[in-house]
Amino acid sequence: MSKKWVYLFGEVAEAEKYCGGSWDKVRGLLGGKGSGLADMTRAGVPVPPGFTVTTEACNAYSASGKFPEGMWDQELAALKEVENETGKKFGDPANPLLVSCRSGAKFSMPGMMDTVLNLGLTDKTAEGMIKLTNNPRFVYDSYRRLVEMFGSVVLGIPDEPFEEGLKDYKERKGYKLDTEMTAEDWKAIIVTFQDIIKKYKGFDFPQAPLKQLELATLAVFNSWNGKRAVDYRRATNIPDDLGTAVNIVTMVFGNMGNDSGTGVAFTRNPSTGDRKMMGEYLLNAQGEDVVAGIRNTDPVENMSKVMPEVYNQFMDITNKLERHYQEMQDVEFTIERGKLWMLQTRNGKRTAKAAVKIAVDMANEKLISKEEAVLRVTPEQVDTLLHPQFDEKAKKEAEKAGTFFAKGVNASPGAAVGQAYFDADKAEKMAKEHKQDTIMVRPFTKPDDVHGMIASKGVLTSEGGATSHAAVVARQFGIPCVVGANVIKIDLEKRKMEVNGKVVKEGEWISVDGTTGQVFIGKIPTMAPKLEEQVELMTLLTWADEICATPGMRKAPKGWPTTGLQVWANADYPKDAQRARTYGAVGIGLCRTEHMFFEQVRLPIVQRMILSKTSSDRTAALNELLPYQRKDFDGLFEAMNGYPVIIRLIDPPLHEFMPDEEKLFEEVVTMRVLGKKEGLAEKEDLLSAIRGMHESNPMMGMRGVRLSISMPEIVEMQVRAIFEAAADCTLRGIVVKPEVMIPLTGTLSELEWIQPRLERIAKTVMGEKKVNFSYKFGTMIEIPRAAVTAAEIAKLAEFFSFGTNDLTQMTFGYSRDDAERNFLITYVEQKILPKNPFQTIDRDGVGKLMDMAVIDGRKTRPNLEVGICGEHGGDPESIEWCHIIGNNYVSCSPFRVPIARLAAAHSALKHKGIGIAEDK
Ligand code: ADP
Ligand code: MG
Ligand code: MG
Prior knowledge:
48% of the residues lie in helices and 16% in strands. The strands form seven sheets. The protein has an eight-stranded mixed sheet with strand order 14-24-23-16-17-18-19-15.
């Protein structure tokens, strides 16, 4: 017997068996739509009888260019079963069965592939149906839809000739709306449409129903490799080898009169996440009429008045579906003469905001666990929520100034400012080639427009509702979007839009507020949203922290952390530290002290210090800096009351604090030429001093610990400032946990030289101030030699912090700026490197050094505290690596702290209970 290529909706158990019980594999085999229809059938939900041709058949077809052996016979056999179940016969004029042919891949790709409705209608069966239904208008309307869809979808004829054919006809008749078309009118249109097919293809619209079915099946298979579908897969990282299934579904009719209708609904609001059904329906309409946004829809609630029984049944079914899948569902339904049919269910796409709210609500409703809720939100979604919003004050002012333009439906939240373009190609071109911020403006969007939407900062349409194509796609890609702003008159030919005399021409700036639905002319400033106001996100992150704080999350040797990662922040100023705290950081992993030297009043003192000829001159200058530094640290300790603060001693080469050599040289030359004497000597001295400091490779020269050893006075001052501030804070009742970090260590002997001197100062200050608090001295691990000799280094260092930027530079031998400018893009494109190693830790090289350093370091000092303070500390994949190798914490920019908290919890859940050293 040949392979099973076709499954009836009732055969879901067999599909499950074939897939070894894995529902994920069933979805892969039958596609999302097919598996959903089969699953609903099993649950007793009313689904029109039908069957699914598997994705395996599609792949076999793609490989060989023809239907695989046995497939077509199985399709015919399944059709027989459907005939038996419905009591109708495909192609029988006396009682014709009609079906739809629908694509459906494992992951839903809305509108990306093709569907044909009303297959089985021919000149003969149409007459038969009229006898049965006594409703010629309905039959001819259905038939003309088939001829049109068959022409465009199956035979690849453009939409325009069909649309124009209908438009001309209506004009001749003086009609405005489709509803004015009579049965005879539709009948005439069918002839027109059939002529179009003949004209474009040279053959007739097939009057043999089985030929229709065969060609439609082929068309769905082929649509998998169509441009739209391929573009969509690129944008969403869906693999090309999944294939699409083909679903053949008995037609049910929403266009049989006013006791019929069709609609789509989300079980919760996909934009805000509110726990309230959001849907639209149309009476006396078929299929895609709702989504296409060509007729004005009614909200689903209204069904409760028009057809209360159907409404209640619908609410009951959708409730059950949501509980069954434990997820917000996106459903399609049709009502045929008062009977409800479900045509599709799938997990609904949603905005980042809705994703968080739905996850938290569902956990509170006990539908899912807190862990599951945390896993359902991606770090990228958290990132989106922290993206800029419009500044409310600026918006009010814009309103007063009269730049308000229009209001539509708030379909996808966020602030977008950009230049308006009226088609997808132009929007994409201006964004990609001219690096503009663009807003794509259209009456409505189609699947062919997606490339323009993705390239744009925002999308604006004048037609369609919250479930229109534009809205669904924008939500999925997190693009701010306003739809259905129907006061706007868009003139595609003149490339402009207008509301009451206010005109926006192509290329002009507009601001689109997807959160409120407002549109303004011009640019409105944006600001970072307040995390404190995002209650659900705060809750979710608290759960993430709880997960990470659970002992036993990591199986580990004595001294190693057994909880998940903590998240600390890099902060140089007290205000950054405060932000870090509100964002949930529980420590400062890196305070860069050199920033403090650059401030206006301080820089001249710093320069004087650097140019000092004697140690006592230098100390004098440093004594002037001491009170400033002490104040900086005081503020940090206060903001971080009770939490550790790692302060890095001076790191960059000293020339960075000096005036620019070339500029100074120019000044000197100019003065000499003009014969200006005053101040010339000082400038000449300064110039020669700077020249004396010249290094050919400063980043690998005199900096970090090397600088401290040749000029210890600077770090001695810094340590004194740190401990005086810590002591003062302690006396004020603040709990301080200072940790002094020595940068750029390569050998133990460097630490042996510098660390005891600094520790002596720490003790002296504590003695002077008569206070006691705990503190640590440790080092950055950013030179490969330090990683390799970690067991030695840990003899003195009480903590390690990976400086992965320098560590990556030195491990690869790349200078970051040069690499990113010159060859890294090519390396990634050519797959020489999988990713930019400065964004995501290279686990095989740099990561291996880190791993080794942790193991060796803790051999010497089992409770060695390990963290990371490079930019990688905010990158989810790198965070996972830090979890795997046994870090205590990751430290990142305050703005990325929420993302890191979630990513840390994901890592903990993914590797729950997995040993650290054991599995090495
Ligand atoms: P998409 O994947 O683009 O949503 P679908 O295959 O779901 O495409 O179908 C497009 C439209 O046709 C939807 O509105 C759907 O509900 C409707 N439809 C599909 N099959 C049938 C059917 N057998 N009877 C009635 N309407 C159908
Ligand atoms: Mg659908
Ligand atoms: Mg460094």
